[in-house]
Amino acid sequence: MSLRKDQLLHHLFTLFFKVVFYKKITGRVISIGLIAFSSLIGVRVINEYLKYNDLPKYKYDSSIRLLNDGSKIHTAHPVNYNIKSTGKDTVVFVSDSFGEGEKCGNSNNIAGCLWDLNPRKKIINLSLGGTTPAFYLKQIKTYISHQRDNKKNISGESVIVSLYSNDIVLDQEYCNFYNSNISKFQGLMNQKEFNKVNKKCEFLLSLSSEEYDEIKNFKIPFRNQIINVLGDRSFILIREIVAQLSLKILKDSSIGRAGYIPIWKKNNSGELILLAEVLNEMNNICKVNNCKLIISTFPNVENLSLNSKVRSAMLSFSNFMKKNYSLKIHDGYEPFISNKVLNASYSLTDIHSNCEGYQLYANWLVSLQN
Fold this sequence. Notes:
By secondary structure, the protein is of the alpha/beta class.
């Protein structure tokens, strides 16, 4: 009888502890669930704020013009904007998405600010996002050639080229330029670099436009799933924080933005030599066609410190160009540093410049033309 009582007590105690343990576990799971749910709601609220913070301030239009010879040229102007050169009173500006400055619109991007500073000047903006100096060269060639064909006695334009930190990365336009001068590059590059560039260009030029776009617009694994949970702007913010940390912490990374920096400082790299020859070709075009070439860098506006790694790398390239090609490349960090601006990002999720930054940069460019 006592054994049965002992067994009964044992079962009761076991049941009691199971109930207590279950309640504790259930309580913790509910607490964790509530915390996770609250955090997700918080992230979503932040995402909506980030969307608002990133809204365009002004209207932007671009157009593709059909030229007399049947060729086409992209312009960062509305279709009714007159792009004919007036000679020495014309400023041609070409860069990538920073030159377009879409969210600041045609009136407050760099070209718009240049016109504001001197309305008597004709400003021609040939910038296009996602492009590199090989494309800028193509734009300059096409535009200058077309203007000379239209009016033989026109000359004296200022041509401003603005370089950004990712302009060192190979693309199809670079490879087209490389292929048209391949024997020259064989002499300029060491065998290892020549083989590397050759292999990369063979691959890039073998891609269809769809395949190239997929390679060009690299996507983080599970990107869409993460965006569905966090929201697109929250995802971009986290990605930008990771990019900034990698730039500050990693010394020799080949990943993302941090991977560009060592190439600018490696004077024998194939990419650097290719960029140098593209810029030299721009200079030759302006010598032949009597235009004034001005080359400057455009800073990574999310970090405008005097000792920025990006600035240091691009200054190294500037020294290389001055020594080997007698070409001056102006330091685009100067106007920001002299005005003690440490960050000129458009928003928390957009590392393009804000409109005030474009104004500051345009003021500085005007001083370079004088």
